[in-house]
Write a structure and sequence with these properties.
single chain; mainly alpha; 4 helices; 2 strands; about 35% helix
Length: about 90
């Protein structure tokens, strides 16, 4: 919310023994007040990794034809999900 990624990095890092911090620190932190979609520049391609997408945020994504850019993160259900997602991002970057 405040553009400080440390809380998210520490939260994600608890889900694995692998050191993901170097990868996670590459994510661009953003600031927003009510809806997380306020921080999205819809004129550029993006991927949004989050555990929840509220109804107003879903509407904003749909209005910009960008709903598929949201990647739902559920570490309780898929503990290795972020490792998989990082490997996917590495493949896309090549």
């Amino acid at each position: 919310m405040d553009g400080d990624p440390d809380h998210a990095i520490n939260y994600v890092q608890r889900a694995t023994d692998e050191n993901l911090r170097p990868y996670l620190q590459k994510f661009k932190p953003v600031s927003w007040s009510t809806a997380k979609t306020e921080a999205i520049d819809f004129s550029k391609p993006f991927l949004w990794f989050d555990d929840d997408c509220y109804s107003d945020e879903r509407l904003a994504l749909n209005e910009h034809n960008a709903f598929r850019s949201w990647i739902e993160v559920d570490l309780a259900k898929y503990p290795d999900q972020l490792t998989y997602e990082l490997k996917l991002l590495e493949a896309l970057a090549k």
